């Protein structure tokens, strides 16, 4: 009897372990080909850029050069997202592949335009941007950060992008 019970418990444990949810399910694949993809989770919900009828381009990336400094700018919009309608990533003094801690004073920040009445712009005060590829016009990477709006913390996790720069 004990052997049967133990066997049953092992089977239940294996089935339960196999049914764990994939936290990356529904996100864009992690590519490095300039596929023009962007996705993340905002408080556990998937965010992807979405074209609005007659609206601006929902996703773009570009490098601006001024006074000898490069700035990487990435913008992703989805006006129907319940939390954030635009994520605007800025890396001042962009050097290419590497990890960039989000430090506003260093010019590394993420502006988030929230789907709430004005004032609706918040800056991320903590997080990391990681560039995994920068070659020619292709830039790919990952990110995670937190934004606070009033007393609400908005967690942006599992972020990834793969862009062909303008």
UniProtKB/TrEMBL annotation:
Superkingdom classification of source: Bacteria
Protein name: Lipoprotein
Organism: Pedobacter albus
Lineage: Bacteria, Pseudomonadati, Bacteroidota, Sphingobacteriia, Sphingobacteriales
